Amino acid sequence: MVPRTRMILAMFACLALSSLVWADSPVHYFAERTFEIPYSLDPDPTFARLHLHVSSDEGKTYSQAASTLETRGAFTYTARSDGWYFFVVQIERKDGSLTPAKVHLTQPSLRVCVDTEKPKATLQKAVPKKGGKLAVEWSVSDPNLDLQTLRVEYRVIGAPRWIPIKHDQLTRAQLEWNPTGDGPFEVRLLVSDKANHLTEVKTELPALGLGGGGGFPRSSGAIPPPGDRKVIYVNRKTFKLNYAIDGAGPSKVKHVEVWMTRDTSSWSIYKNNAPATGPCEVTVNAQGRYGFTLRPISGVGRGITPPRAGDYPQIWVEVDETPPTIRLHSVVVNEGADANTITVNWQASDKFFGETPITIYFATSNAPDARWEVLQPNVENTGSCKCKTDGLPFEFYVRVEATDRAGNKAADQTRETVKVDLSEPKVIEVNVSVGDPQ
Are residues 133 and 78 in the same domain? Predict the structure, then answer.
């Protein structure tokens, strides 16, 4: 790390020591506490030694940090903590005189701010003042914040390109805008400090539903009303578009053009035309969100206007091949007022969960061919669920399964059986008997 810092310092800190007092002391910010200050002294037969003095209280007091007999080289300095450090270089000559004579009365040759901490930032959803818009609010702070680096960008989740949003360079603000696409959306904020630490924070915003960006799409004749647009989730890159065509004339329909977009900023025609009657098989290259608009072409080559940048598709398809992650933490057998119940605790996550993605099962065996029966279906992903055990075996295995909107599944299960028979047999009567006399 030191060589990089030295290389940066070398651009400004090669000291022409025949003139020690600078009109304007250079100011620089560094992300590391150890750095080098190169020096270069003009030939001087009276030279004896070079001293480096440092102040950590804005020049009020100085202490000697290093000393050298060399006229060329570099001082290595390690700061004890973050903060400001003022440096003065002093020449000692063979007759014992010093230049400058009094360090504390001299303007520093160099001022360095050591800053090893990243800026702090928060970004969260806000309530827009107008319907049909997205809104976020943020807060950023750092002693050496560079507000000119603040950027806020968004994209439809899965889209390859981030779209910048025009905003003011403020430490605290709320921002709302009309997005391109229906969502759901991902928003990120990036900001740096003067030591070039970069902080990035993200948040997700749900789909806007009707109207996408707050209004009806540009009218091209090919776009349906906002309420007809929807997102279909699939777990394969190859899928079929099903459709029906109305309004064909005597020449009927020759074929159907398939137009595709990722974020409505641009459209491209799919490599193969679709048949006059569906379905049409489509293969995409990667996971993510794809918008499709179908354009029928009549037998004489007529069709409605193709979609343009900014137009919304007839349908969104979210290709999601990634299964959820899930971990079953514990199964607690309840007692007292909650007797005859168990509490199942888990942790599950996925980008595209529905409202009730969890199903809880039980089985008397954990063999590969075990028969798992539903104990509790359609459970919200709250991480905990209480289930009744009436009518269940006295011991069994528990399995938790998570399913996302695309149908990807993941499951975890107990390694040992859960024993729900908490009864403790007791002897209620003790008696003594003897055998009949001989």
Answer: no
